[in-house]
Amino acid sequence: xxxxxxxxxxxxxxxxxxxxxxxxxxxxxxxxxxxxxxxxxxxxxxxxxxxxxxxxxxxxxxxxxxxxxxxxxxxxxxxxxxxxxxxxxxxxxxxxxxxxxxxxxxxxxxxxxxxxxxxxxxxxxxxxxxxxxxxxxxxxxxxxxxxxxxxxxxxxxxxxxxxxxxxxxxxxxxxxxxxxxxxxxxxxxxxxxxxxxxxxxxxxxxxxxxxxxxxxxxxxxxxxxxxxxxxxxxxxxxxxxxxxxxxxxxxxxxxxxxxxxxxxxxxx
Length: 268
Ligand SMILES: NC(=O)c1ccc[n+]([C@@H]2O[C@H](COP(=O)([O-])OP(=O)(O)OC[C@H]3O[C@@H](n4cnc5c(N)ncnc54)[C@H](O)[C@@H]3O)[C@@H](O)[C@H]2O)c1
Known about the structure:
Rossmann fold, 7-stranded parallel β-sheet
């Protein structure tokens, strides 16, 4: 592991840090020199990620957080301050598993749960994180959105809506805190091969076959490919980048498939 790197002296708080993309981001930012606060609803998973960072030669601390709850977000930021003394980088990865359905079949509680974690969670983490980042002289916020915040999928309004809103929220965040030297950007991954995303189609092997061809590059992405983008946005290499959404989607959003003479469409 390289300890002297682009992120030396930085402290990154990663929500959903116990998940697969969150873990990849933690390992990557640590490899570039950042100290990592791993926060997750599942404390055991957060601790496993922190141990992986430490085993690789980095600095990490784990904390439990429910990003849908204000006091829990405040406590996660305070735990980061207690562990590392400052906050320069906030990566909002946490998202809940959202149910499929229409306005007629989804309950209000299901809708509110999706908003509470996927959207309000980022709002709350920023609410408590921004003052610490300002005190540190600035920093970078990265919100993990989705290609499905760009393209809708039938029966998935809770997920698609919250991710689209997260992209827009990020733009306003960038405007509101540019003067604080805080940059804010989102990343929209394509289909990334994780347990969570593969479960919908019955496992990773099936996901490769079913979801791979939906991308121009004819394969799903890997968590490390999202982590590489997060490391760029977190670092001074992205010092002139704010208010943008970085599609790391293998061409998913660009690709419209083929249409035959009868108008029937198919994916390549
Ligand atoms: N995997 C993909 O194909 C894909 C594609 C586009 C976007 N994304 C986004 O990337 C992110 C990570 O996805 P992943 O595939 O690594 O999923 P994952 O399930 O491995 O990670 C999500 C993590 O969020 C945590 N979490 C859930 N609710 C929480 C809460 N209330 N408070 C704090 N933590 C909470 C979970 O415990 C989990 O560890 C999500 O935001 C997801 O929407 C994933």
